[in-house]
User: Which sequence fits this backbone?
């Protein structure tokens, strides 16, 4: 059920749209394919991995397609820190921006599927990401 608080939160996201877009544009792009799963990647005789279905691939901001369950979102920072050790281009990437990309990707997916109640559940998390400055804290990598 849509209540006054939900409407206000959605209006905040609409008002913050320019900032959200800027933060998403600042992230590195990655290939996302929602159809890839454990049964669609195989290893050939020489040890190379082969993805057998590339029908719905897209270039999206880093974080898009990451699972949004509480446990998965909790470990996002750890995974990003590990990735930063192997890829210098990620050193200036803020965890909150990657989380924002994760949540906005999921929000869009839920809206397309007309799962509006589930989409509304993401709005407070999105506002939390946007309410946090996107500056990257200095960390030892």
Assistant:
């Amino acid at each position: 059920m849509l209540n006054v608080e939900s409407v206000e939160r959605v209006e905040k996201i609409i008002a913050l749209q320019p900032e959200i877009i800027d933060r998403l544009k600042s992230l590195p792009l990655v290939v996302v394919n929602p159809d890839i799963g454990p049964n669609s990647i195989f290893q050939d005789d020489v040890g190379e991995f082969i993805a057998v279905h590339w029908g719905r691939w897209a270039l999206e901001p880093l974080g898009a397609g990451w699972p949004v369950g509480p446990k998965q979102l909790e470990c996002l920072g750890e995974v990003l820190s590990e990735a930063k050790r192997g890829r210098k281009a990620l050193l200036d990437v803020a965890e909150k921006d990657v989380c924002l990309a994760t949540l906005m990707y999921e929000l869009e997916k839920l809206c397309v599927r007309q799962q509006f109640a589930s989409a509304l559940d993401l709005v407070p998390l999105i506002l939390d990401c946007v309410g946090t400055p996107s500056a990257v804290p200095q960390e030892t990598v």
About this structure: The CA atoms of residues 16 and 130 lie 8 Å apart. Strands lie at 29-32, 41-43, 49-51, 58-61. The two ends are 45 Å apart (CA to CA). The longest strand covers residues 29-32.
